[in-house]
Structures are given as C-alpha cells and as structure tokens.
Amino acid sequence: MYTIEKNRNKLIHNQPTFFLDPKEQAELKKKLKKESYQIYKPYKDSEKNIFFTTTPPNVTLYEIKSKIPLEHREILGTIFSLNISSELFGDIIITNNHYYIYVLSQIAPYIKNNLITIKNSTVELEEVPLETLKDYQKEYETIQIISSSNRIDTVIARLIKTSRTNIIEKIKSKEIILNYDILKKNSYLLKENDVFSIRRHGKYQYLGITKETKSKNYIITIKKYK
Questions:
Q1: What CATH number has the domain bearing residue 99?
Q2: pTM here?
Q3: What is the pLDDT of residues 8-57, one digit of tens each?
Q4: Is 113 left (phi over 0), alpha (psi -120 to 50) or beta?
Q5: The CATH number of the domain where 167 resides is what?
Q6: What residue numbers bound the domain in which 64 lies?
C-alpha cells in the first residue's frame, strides 16, 4: 500500500497520485495547500479519485463482459487475487447488468490479460470510452431499522438480523470495515455519513436517527449500496 507521503511526493514532482479512497483523500488534503492540486473524478460522485497538479492521470475504463450475473465482492476478490493493490484501480460499477472498472492505464494491459475468470466463469475485458459513465449516478436502497442504540454492533445486528454476539465475532475476524479501516471496537457510536461494509452482506452508509419511538428505541435510516 502506498503511503500518503509517497502520494504527496508524486504531486511535488508533477505526477498524479494513485487512486485514493475517501479517507486517504482527507489525509492528503491536510498536507496540501488547497490551490496546489486538482482532483480527477471519473464520474460525478466517485469514491476513489486521483489528485494531480497540471498533468491529468491516464485512466482506462473496462467493461467486464460476463455470461453470468456478478456481484461487486466477486469482482473485487478476483482482482485482489491477482495481487493488484487497491491504489491501482478505481470504483467498480454495476449498472443495468453491466460491469465496469476504472484502472490506471499503466496496469491496464496486465489486468486485461489476467482477469479472465470470475466465479469459475470466463469473462472478457473490453475498453470503453471514459464518457460511457459520465452521467452515471449511484443507486441506493434506503433501509429503516428499529434499534435500541446507534452502537455499531447493535445496528448491524438489527440490519442483518443476527445477534450482537455474532457481530462481535465478525469484528474479531476482521469482517467489518468502518470508514475504510478494519473495525476494532464494537462499542463505536455511528455518526452521520459513516460508511461500513460487512463481508458477504454489502456496503452501507449510516444516515442517522430519524426519530425516537414511544418505547424509547430509535428509528435509524441507512443506505445500502446496490
């Protein structure tokens, strides 16, 4: 994994950074003067972006052609199995049964030649114009749950209909990611716009407490990424 300092040094030498997740972007911004950089966003509300000074990055957009339905986690897992670090590729997008991935052009040939099967099915990568997804907007499912607390273990237990004990085991097994870090404390109190992922259950954004019920529980609103 490339450090924030290495990405900062790339900018100093007029080179674009690698793809950065929201946490990395926030950390890098703290080390830079606001007017000293620009941000390349592959599409309007992309999560992983690239910082640059005057020279824009070279990015390739691939459509993953598959004969069977795929899930985000299956595509991501296959990419990681090729020993490709997360800094070298951007968001994975699934829309209208089409699958896309942004990659740094320097790694594009390797990915095209090696990403040939997903879920034991043959796939093919076809380069498409970057403008293909210029109007793409993320799709979400809005979910409301009733919970006694906004503690992350309590909320997730209600969300995926399991026990808090099971959630604690998932935390110990590093199966829950909070704001792009492995969750370590089950007592964490969720804050508005926190993002968390649960292995085999998907990715979510906590929107907050909508209201309190007569029984002193909370109605909590969450967005699930489709």
A1: 3.30.70.330
A2: 0.84
A3: 999 999 999 999 999 999 999 999 998 999 999 999 889 999 999 999 99
A4: alpha
A5: 3.10.290.10
A6: 59-133
